[in-house]
Design a protein that fits this description.
The chain has helices spanning about 80-90, 105-115, 130-135; strands spanning about 1-5, 25-30, 30-35, 50, 90, 125-130. The chain is an alpha+beta fold and about 140 residues long. The protein has one domain. The strands form three sheets. Strands 1-5 form a two-stranded parallel sheet. Strands 2-3 form a two-stranded antiparallel ribbon. Strands 4-6 form a two-stranded antiparallel ribbon. The longest helix is centred in the middle third of the chain and has 10 residues, at about 80-90. The termini are far apart.
Length: about 140
């Protein structure tokens, strides 16, 4: 993962390799959105999601793409290109307050995972009330239907 921050934050993390949380990716109208999963298995429509612990994400999971290379389409064949674009772009800033439950915060989480081959600590994820179905439909999940 690559970090470029004007304040020098996360500079020790730049260019390092980390275990990743299980993720859900959504592309709609040329925009990429990402959420995390507490369990690494195919989610159901009722599966609740978690905050993906990355910079450059808004509170609804949309990726601030900046200089990210984006494919022209949202086809199944384009999925690897979206993933590469996400991971090969520079993470430059935190868009939301809290990204993880890790006691050391965002930097502490990723520092603890630097170069590790172990499983991502899903207990550090911030669970959301949003279900997969709500995420796909663009609903927040923080209100009753």
């Amino acid at each position: 993962m690559f970090y470029e921050n004007a304040e020098g934050k996360a500079s020790d993390l730049n260019g390092r390799i980390f275990p990743q949380p299980p993720l859900v990716w959504k592309v709609a109208s040329g925009e990429l959105s990402v959420r995390a999963l507490a369990v690494n298995k195919r989610p159901q429509t009722t599966t609740t999601l978690a905050v993906a612990p990355f910079w450059n994400l808004s509170d609804d999971g949309r990726v601030c793409t900046g200089t990210m290379r984006r494919p022209e389409s949202a086809t199944v064949a384009a999925i690897p290109v979206w993933e590469r674009g996400f991971y090969e772009s520079a993470f430059t800033h935190a868009n939301v307050g809290r990204l993880t439950r890790h006691e050391g915060g965002f930097e502490g989480l990723w520092e603890s995972l630097t170069g590790k081959r172990r499983r991502f600590p899903t207990e550090s994820l911030i669970q959301l009330p949003q279900t997969l179905d709500q995420f796909v439909r663009g609903e927040r999940g923080d209100h009753a239907h």
